[in-house]
Amino acid sequence: MKPTNKTINRRSFLKVSALAGGGMMLSFSWLAGCKPSPEETLSLPKEWFELNSYIKIGDNGVVTLMAPNPEFGQNVKTSLPMMLAEELDIDWKNVIVKQADFFPQHFDRLQFTGGSTAMSRAWKPLRTAGATARQMLVDAAGQTWKVPATEITTEGGVLHHKGSGKSAGYGEMASIAAKLPVPKDVPLKKVGDFKVIGNSKRNVEGLNIVTGKPLFTLDYKEPGMLIAMIAHPRAFGLKVRSVDDSAARSMPGITDVFTIKTLDDKYERNGFDTTSYTDLVVVVGKSTWEVMNAKKALKIEWEKTPETNMVVQGWGGKETVNIPAGLESTDKHKAMMAEMAKRPAKLLRKDGDPEGAFKKAAKVIERTYTAPFLAHNTMEPRNCFAHVTADKADLYGPIQAPEFIMQALSARLGMPREKIQIRLARMGGGFGQRAYGHHLVEAVVISQKLNAPVKLVYSREDDMTAGIYRPTYTVTYKAGLDENNNLIAYSIKAGGIPESPLGFSQNRFPAGAVDNYLAEEWKIDSNITIGAFRAPRSNFLGGAEQSFMDEVAELAGKDPIEFRLELFDRAIKNPVGKDNDYDAERYAGVLKLVKEKSNWGPAKSGVHRGVAAYFCHNTYVAEVIDLTMKGEKPVVEKVYAAVDCGVVINPDAAANMGEGAIVDGIGNALFGEMTFQDGVPQKNNFNTYRMIRHSEAPKSIEVHFVKNEKDPTGLGEPLFPPIFAALGNALHKATGKRFYEQPFQKQLETPRPATQM
Amino acid sequence: MAIFNLNINGKKQQVDVDPATPMLWVLRDHLDLVGTKYGCGVAQCGACTVHLDDVAMRSCQLPVSAVGDKTITTIEGLSEKGDHPVQKAWLEHDVAQCGYCQAGQIMNASALLKSNSHPSDEEIEAAMNGNICRCATYVRIRAAIKTAAKA
Predict the structure, then answer these.
(1) Which of B28, B78, B99 is opposite residue A205, by nearest beta carbon?
(2) Does ipTM surpass 0.90 in this model?
(3) Where among A172, A190, A210 does a domain terminate?
């Protein structure tokens, strides 16, 4: 056992005495008040003892573990408490998991789910919280039994002292442990000693999900609660001029119609206050159906918004964002991007002499890839419950990043943060979009105006057309091979609307593996709002780069896996440049694993194989697709994935998320697309926005994890980007054509020339 | 507004609503049966699937006035303890990610198995194609349906 450097935050050990007025015990009536679901056969204790913010132990040995992070399907509500249980050394069957409310100072500021960071950020603090609580129980037993604490062992929630033969359950020692000082620098278990981590645990909400329990904000109800909906402008670049609400007001169940502003024009936004629309036309009523109908009866006139320059507080400090006036269209976007791609761009990285090397190269290949805007389309549309009174604001809503919306809530309500309480709801999907919390601001201003509890509801159409999309991107790659088919020059020039996909990844592969390398970027401003979408930027670059790499390997006359391994070999033995942000050995490791698992080699007759590998969110992934063609329809028979994300906490749940990312990627590669005409999103529901469905999903998926003892890294996102390329490369084998433009389905339906030159 | 007497999950229920109100909103807003989910409102996603008698039905497109004396079963009424073979199979395969669409998937799958106790892969795909899962748990859903068919 080695001591961890991190000492558990004192504040996360809520000193129970302060709350309970001198007594050390804190009993939780809230839990006793909850009806246990049939799965919970645990008998509830008479009293709970809080050892720290995450852990409460009942007098009967039942343990409540708090899940700090917002849950939107990654299974963080199950997998994070597994870290606590591991170090606390308890039997998982005696555990009750509860979702924590947003209380950042008590939960090590972990309460953000996004960027595939939940496991890695929690890895030290949660194990430390578990180990420290365990040590307090050990110390309590040592004092009680008058034996050295170092002689006490634990197993499955029971304390033992071999010398005296004494033993006791945690529940018997919890009241004493809760009064003890919090020990520092408690050692953590070695990976090889794990009993909970690495052993699959089923979703703690499984039974509640399959029985339809109210788990989501959209299911939430309070006495006197009103339903509110917003009529957003029909197009980006418009705002409300006038509203004729006479018909809507007189409709049954409607209690109010009004216009209200969410963010003051002078308010300085942060990067998560994303919205195009701050003037809301709001319809309020008693039931969702009535409000939906009344909203349709509004007669609203719109006017064009002027160009603005907005100062936004981003990660790297303040920046001015230009938001142009005008009504934008996809055709114009494409023409502007093609034009912009020809102009000089911002240099991000240059190694060697790319220009000279391209001139000397025996073979040069240049390819351009494009991808459209994408809508997140979470199954649960945006919504939020809010009840704002004179002295506090109570929110219950789907939000990945509660911390980042606090500034706007506090500024708009004129309330200090401690009076604003966000209860974290299970989300019906997030995919990055729920990191942006303007729907919470909308809910509070409506509740404040009405002085009533309100649930703000977006219809599917509202959700799909109100903005925050994956941006549209393009990238041009150029590669030069020498007469021996070695890669000697490589350039990448990427751009997009309204951001470039490249800015964070110019130091990724194949940088470091090629002597002459150039990376440049550009962007075009837009008034269409964008945001993180599963594996931001990588979700385009991974597919484009790895499709290009396949074509370069083909030009070099080399097997696509061997070609990549040669490059990694170069990056391992003699890397170019100093800032390469990947570990070439681990990268090569996943390729070798997928090669082995897929039995890589010539495909069976009628089966077409494609391979790709990508590194993002600190995780290495390689994927192989086997597909057959049924006429023009690709049938994905099998997907093999090899993943190196360090220690895997909850293997079956991890595989589930990997399978989902693969299917999601195939769906978006084939079908995903949002287009615009005069600022109007051209798709507003699932009859026009095509999502992958049962019959289009792979028949079978194998996710293999590299076994090592490295600290865990991301998983929700990294399997997503490379599958675009594995699919494109397999489709090339099947059709003889390369797929340069997403969504691929258009090209499958409309044959195009096989090459781009 | 009009009064409707409904038979839901084996219980008589009375509501006083606009006759055009879809059953989805009658269930969710008037009867507190929120397991049936709103996903699209246009019968494209299947999140609102219920059984009308024994047939899977998109409740967002089923006006309350069209129900008559047919019985409605929602996810809350599929079994008493969450132990319907389809629900058990869902737990065994730990299908759910976010979980939002799963009630609709389960209601559709259970209706399928009622009419076809041993569906082929193609029959499963055809029957389930109207149910979108944005987390894309399709492979596990298919496996769970096969497990339930064996139960």
Answers:
(1) B99
(2) yes
(3) A210
